[in-house]
């Protein structure tokens, strides 16, 4: 039996997503597209990669090809649905019999705004999300939000962001808390450090290791 052909439309080939895409490729014939950043050597992965060049009109990022026609080659489309600027991705479910899933954070977030702080386009997102066959979010926060806005919970799912962790060759005592992420103020890492320092005066705590880079790197290092 032939594997279903799945198209995953994304913005970049983030290294931390590659392992989960490779696992997905065990179940389907997967093709991943990207428009920004570097490509990868696909010889060690089971999915195919296609670069889609773009151009910009006002705030919108548009692929130079006809995405709707291109997507008809596949049984299912999973599209990056975090940003309304990716207009062609967001328009895919409209007047289309093909199954489309949006995979995204689901709410606004950036290095300059707090999580879900920008709600100006929530009704537009609700309309677009309602047209999709399913929605995959990084956390359950958007599920509770959009359920209140009338979107069925039956079509909303959670797939947390992941990093590849190799099995330990031998059993070791777990004595470390590991933080991995971009270091910017809105993530509240300073609050974590301040709390850790207060608790350390009273309790024997695990080692805290922080991995990442960003605008707060120097402050956190100090």
What do these coordinates show?
With 222 residues, this protein is of the alpha/beta class. The chain has seven helices and eleven strands. It has helices at 18-24, 67-71, 87-91, 122-131, 141-148, 189-200, 217-221; strands at residues 5-9, 29-34, 48-51, 54-57, 60-63, 76-80, 99-104, 134-137, 156-158, 176-180, 207-211. It has a seven-stranded parallel sheet with strand order 3-2-1-6-7-8-9, with helices on one face. It has a two-stranded antiparallel sheet with strand order 4-5. Strand 10 (176-180), helix 6 and strand 11 form a beta-alpha-beta unit.
The secondary-structure element order is EHEEEEHEHEHEHEEHEH
Q: What is the terminal separation in angstroms?
A: 58 Å
Mean pLDDT: 90
* Total E-strand runs: 11
Q: What is the structural class?
A: alpha/beta
Give the helix tally.
Answer: 7
Which residues sit in consecutive blocks of at least 5 with pLDDT less than 50?
none
Spatial extent as radius of gyration: 20 Å
Strand order in space, largest sheet? 3-2-1-6-7-8-9
Strand content: 15-25%
Which sheet architecture does the biggest sheet show? 7 strands, parallel
Structure described in brief:
With 222 residues, the protein is of the alpha/beta class. It has 7 helices and 11 strands.
């Amino acid at each position: 039996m032939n594997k279903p052909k799945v198209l995953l439309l994304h913005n970049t080939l983030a290294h931390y997503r590659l392992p989960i895409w490779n696992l997905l490729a065990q179940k389907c014939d997967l093709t991943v597209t990207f428009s920004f950043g570097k490509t990868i050597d696909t010889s060690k992965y089971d999915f195919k990669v296609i670069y889609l060049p773009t151009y910009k009109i006002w705030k919108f990022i548009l692929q130079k090809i006809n995405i709707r026609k291109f997507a008809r080659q596949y049984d299912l489309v999973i599209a990056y649905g975090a940003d309304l600027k990716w207009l062609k991705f967001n328009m895919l479910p409209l007047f289309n019999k093909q199954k489309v899933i949006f995979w995204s954070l689901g709410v606004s977030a950036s290095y300059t705004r707090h999580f879900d702080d920008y709600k100006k386009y929530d009704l537009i997102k609700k309309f677009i999300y309602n047209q999709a066959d399913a929605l995959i979010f990084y956390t359950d926060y958007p599920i509770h939000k959009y359920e209140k806005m009338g979107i069925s919970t039956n079509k909303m799912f959670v797939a947390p962001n992941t990093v590849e962790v190799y099995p330990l060759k031998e059993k070791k005592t777990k004595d470390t808390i590991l933080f991995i992420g971009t270091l910017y103020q809105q993530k509240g890492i300073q609050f974590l450090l301040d709390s850790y320092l207060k608790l350390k005066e009273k309790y024997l705590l695990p080692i805290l290791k922080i991995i990442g880079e960003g605008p707060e790197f120097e402050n956190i290092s100090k």
